[in-house]
Please model this.
Amino acid sequence: MSQDFKRRTIVNWLLGGGVIAWLSAIFFPVLKYLQPPSIPEAVVSSVKAATVNELANNSSKIFKFGNKPGLLIKTPAGEWRAFTAICTHLDCIVQYRDDLEHIWCACHNGHYDLQGRNISGPPPRPLEEYDVNIQGKDVYVSKRT
Model:
């Protein structure tokens, strides 16, 4: 009786292991196919964000800085400023409000001044600021080093 029980237990373990191996052989390639491949992010240090004549004073433009959005602002005084367009609170996209003359996050009513500093609302820290360089008629934005 005891010997029969051991044989049956061993056979059950072998059959169970075989079924698990068979299911793994079927589903592992399917799951591997559905999972997107990891592609290393290209390091972007400078991009052409606009042309000089593209923005009037007290206006802005969202541009793509690598795979993240950036915000290029031409202040009412005609100065160029650039920041990451991602709010430091919950990663919403910020925008420039020409009526308030500062940066605003619509998700939770966060406000930043034109230096990128958080001045009201829930954002915990300032926006990352970029350098703005004008070369000819093009406006280039680059990360600060």
Summary: The mean pLDDT is 92. The radius of gyration is 28 Å. The CA atoms of residues 91 and 145 lie 23 Å apart. The beta strands are 46-51, 59-65, 68-74, 80-84, 94-97, 102-105, 110-112, 118-120, 129-135, 138-143.
